[in-house]
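Progress note, sequence design subtask.
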């Protein structure tokens, strides 16, 4: 079996740490592991597969001996460093939003559009967390019944904003309970005991960038003909995003057929027994790999309407796991090389 020199950029962040542990857990064929982060963290130690690894600075020159680099250090770092890493010979799988909508760069969910990897030129983009779980659940339904329209509302965990947001929620909960004054650094308002209809920046059209990512990424990966309307909301949950998804399809369906389809879909687990209060929950999805789907029911207010509740761990399938699955697919399809031009 071929072994690969792997680097994780942003290795000490929420997603970076998850990437390192998932690579070990899934026994990715790692020959050497390089942990890269900002200069201030140089020399810190972090664990990979039970062994302590010294963190190095992510900079030009760091990728000359790397085959696959998993980037998770934010869009700015990806914009400047990812092309350098590719030039130095590494295939980059990038978790940030920097390259997702570039028509030359494949945006991939292995359960949805693995074929897009065939045309990669060294840089591959990992989609936004809220889009990944939505499309893993909707792909089999679209293939069978052709989705015309999606209306989605998200309930997103604070870990989606990184390690500092997790710390902010912990601090605010403690201060709230101790009756102390609460201040916010990561979010524009208190997140503890609150719900913020505001993820990423507001755009000219009144939507947030997070909402428009769900629109554009669905068009790029699933079908540009699908109409998508999204409202994204941050809630005080540590881990796992939940989504209320309403769809309309071209072709008629039976709800029981949809349930069966989802039961067989790769990466999906159906939890839907309301008589015993069984439905997907953020707390139960945390640390798991699957996209959990429940509350599957007809929307009788339109023709061929369906409602779903979809929950998945944003740090795993929404980020680190999807990136590692892309790397696994590259290995399986013998695509771990950068084409000459
Ligand atoms: N969290 C999620 O659920 C999720 C899901 C999908 C995609 N993503 C994307 O993944 C990326 C990382 O997210 P995260 O949640 O892991 O954030 P995070 O916890 O803030 O971690 C980012 C890490 O990268 C470091 N970093 C910053 N600039 C760097 C640079 N130029 N070179 C090397 N390292 C640098 C950060 O250092 P400092 O701490 O000092 O800044 C931090 O250690 C973001 O682009 C995010 O949009 C996140």
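Output:
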């Amino acid at each position: 079996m071929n072994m690969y020199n792997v680097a994780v950029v942003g290795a000490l962040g929420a997603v970076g740490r998850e990437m390192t542990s998932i690579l070990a857990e899934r026994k990715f064929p790692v020959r050497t592991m390089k942990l890269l982060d900002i200069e201030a963290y140089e020399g810190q130690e972090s664990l990979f597969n039970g062994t302590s690894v010294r963190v190095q600075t992510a900079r030009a020159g760091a990728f000359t001996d790397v085959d696959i680099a998993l980037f998770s250090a934010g869009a700015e770092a990806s914009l400047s460093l990812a092309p350098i890493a590719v030039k130095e010979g590494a295939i980059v799988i990038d978790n940030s939003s920097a390259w997702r909508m570039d028509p030359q760069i494949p945006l991939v969910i292995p359960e949805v559009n693995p074929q897009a990897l065939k045309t990669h030129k060294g840089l591959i983009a990992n989609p936004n967390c809220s889009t990944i779980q939505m499309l893993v659940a909707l792909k089999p339904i679209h293939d069978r019944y052709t989705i015309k329209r999606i209306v989605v509302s998200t309930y997103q965990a604070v870990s989606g904003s990184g390690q500092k947001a997790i710390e902010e929620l912990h601090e605010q909960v403690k201060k709230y309970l101790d009756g102390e004054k609460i201040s916010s650094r990561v979010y524009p308002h208190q997140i503890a005991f609150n719900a913020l209809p505001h993820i990423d920046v507001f755009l000219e059209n009144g939507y947030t960038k997070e909402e428009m990512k769900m629109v554009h990424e669905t068009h790029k990966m699933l079908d540009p003909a699908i109409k998508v309307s999204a409202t994204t909301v941050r809630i005080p949950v540590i881990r796992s995003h939940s989504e209320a998804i309403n769809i309309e399809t071209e072709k008629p369906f039976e709800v029981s057929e949809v349930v069966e389809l989802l039961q067989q879909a790769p990466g999906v687990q159906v939890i839907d027994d309301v008589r015993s209060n069984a439905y997907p929950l953020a707390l139960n999805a945390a640390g798991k790999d699957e996209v959990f789907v429940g509350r599957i029911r007809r929307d009788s207010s339109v023709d061929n309407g369906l409602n779903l509740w979809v929950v998945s761990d944003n740090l795993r399938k929404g980020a680190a796991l999807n990136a590692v699955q892309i790397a696994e697919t590259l290995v399986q399809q013998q695509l771990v090389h950068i084409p000459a031009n």
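The radius of gyration is 20 Å. Work on this subtask will continue into the next period as scheduled.
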